[in-house]
Amino acid sequence: MFRATFRRLLATALAFSIGVFIAFSPFLGLHTIAATLIAFLFRFNKIAIYTGTFLNNPFLTLVPIIVASYALGALVLGRPLSIPAEGIELIKNPRLFSSDYYHQLFVQSWYVVEPFALGASLLSVICSLLAYPLTLWLLRKHRKRSIRTVDHSRCLLRLGWELTTRSQSTTPSGLLAWGPRYRSRF
Question: Between these two residues, 29 and 72, which has the higher pLDDT value?
Fold first, then answer.
């Protein structure tokens, strides 16, 4: 039983860290599809992999992750953090009906895409490697706490206390409550 529980904790931590890897990957827009495919192909815990994947959400974390990815990639490649003046000029004065415009846009966008892709790939690896032991530690801690709660319940039962049912409960909310056993002598 212990080994099965330990394997489940390892599998859950692995699924979460793979979700984190997907969240930081440079393939924007394909995170959910990738998480679904990997979860079904390798039979991972779907809730854990989606939780890891949705660390990168468009409302709170997408912009900081993109900026950090670009900054890390530019740092590794030895490039400045600013966009070149030619790229900014293309954005300010678009010539939409010119094929030369699209060629220049492609060339200048590669100046931004390359550091972003490298930085996102590095962040994917680093963050997923950090997420696995952290998640495993948190799951073990949670497991120990839940075992202590069960052991506490058994100890109280041995001392003559039992969990009363909803109909016998004296709590105002009607929830289950601990109370002394009432034994009739008749």
Answer: 72
Q: Residue 54 is which amino acid?
A: F
- pTM score: 0.70
Query: Residue 184 burial (CB < 10 Å; 0-12/13-18/19+)?
Result: exposed
Domain residues of the chain, as ranges?
2-180
Burial class (CB in 10 A: 0-12, 13-18, 19+), 169: middle
pLDDT, residue 186, reads 44
Separation in Å, CA 16 to CA 2, 93, 120, 123, 177 = 21, 44, 18, 15, 35
Query: Measured between alpha carbons, how far apart are the two ends of the chain, in Å?
Result: 43
DSSP class of 79: -
Local confidence band at 169 (pLDDT 50, 70, 90 cut-offs)? very low
| pLDDT at 90 (0 to 100) | 77
Q: Cα separation of 65 and 55, whole Å? A: 10
CA-CA distance, 124 to 25, in Å (whole number)? Answer: 6
Encoded amino acid at 149, one letter: T
